[in-house]
Each structure stands twice: as C-alpha cells, then as structure tokens.
Amino acid sequence: MIINGQITGLEENFIFVKNNNITYEIETPNTAFFEVGKEYDVFCRFFLKEDTMRIFGFIDRINLLVFNTLNNITGIGPKISLNILRMLTINEIFSSVKNNDNSIFLNIPLVNESTSIQIVSKLKKILHKCEDKIDPLLFTNFTLIKNILKSIGYQEKDITNIYTLLIPSMSIEENIKIAIKGMKNG
Fold first, then answer.
1. Nearest 5°: phi and psi at 146?
2. Cα–Cα distance measured from residue 161 to residue 86, given in angstroms and rounded to the nearest whole number
3. Are 166 and 172 in contact (CB under 8 A)?
C-alpha cells in the first residue's frame, strides 16, 4: 500500500501523513528521510492484531521489500525488522548478503547466529529485484558527502554517525540535506 500525502509531524520513529483529511500515524525506521510540509509517497505495510493496528512506512520500495522479507523469517517480527533497517543501510545489508556474511546482523539486538544465517538466505532470494537500484557508488558518495560537510564546519565524529541515514536512490545533494538534518536532530 502506498500512502501519498503531506508530512504534518515527526516524532521519534513516527511520521504523520495527511491524506484526504485523514492523518495516518506511521512507524518508520528513520524519520530523517522525511520533512514536515513536504509531500511523499510512503510505501507501507499494514498490520492488524487482536488489539492493535500498526502501519509501517518506508521511503522507497526496496526498504519495504526488505522489511517484508525480514518480517517473514521465523523469529523476526516487525520490531527486529525495523531495528535492522534502523541500524544498517540497504547497501550494507546487500553487501553482506552478496558476500554470504551474516556477521553484520549479529550486532542487532535479539538476532542470533541461526537467525542471521536465515536473514542472508532469505535476502539472497530478493537480491536480483534490488541490484539495479542499489548504488554501488554510495560508499564513494559518502566520502564526498563527508568532505563537503567537513568543509562547512561539521566534525568527523558527527558525520560518521549519519551514514545510515543516506538513501542510495537519492542524489548527493538530497543526501547532504538528509545528513545535515540528521545531525541537527540527533
């Protein structure tokens, strides 16, 4: 499901999207991708349990596809899936998958060796759907972004912490805006 609308508010891990006079509270791995007052297509997954309704939203289809794939792994639910997407970039995830390296997932709370192996196995099955959208130059772009931010006065330690905010499908200029916003908020 895609909800198109204007961002009316941001809270930690939540965005508020107004569409046709209805405001949706959407849980997201990173609010720094969104800006209040701007309109976005938010790629969503709706969950309904006995006593709760939750909408999880993502900046692009790749993040939604990864979330859905992770969420279907035994022992991983929405909470762990979101944590993975909060702590790792799409490039880091798929780089590990390509290299058959499950160790990066062991840094995620509640992910053990067995689950990390399952993650790599399941994500391998969707890698072909995403490869053309994953920017192999993001790491190079990060160096460029880092140098630009340093040249305008930001400290190295602050810059390094925003790496997970960068979005491969966005331009360097858009990623610089995201990085600056992330450093101001974080």
1. -60, -45
2. 12
3. no
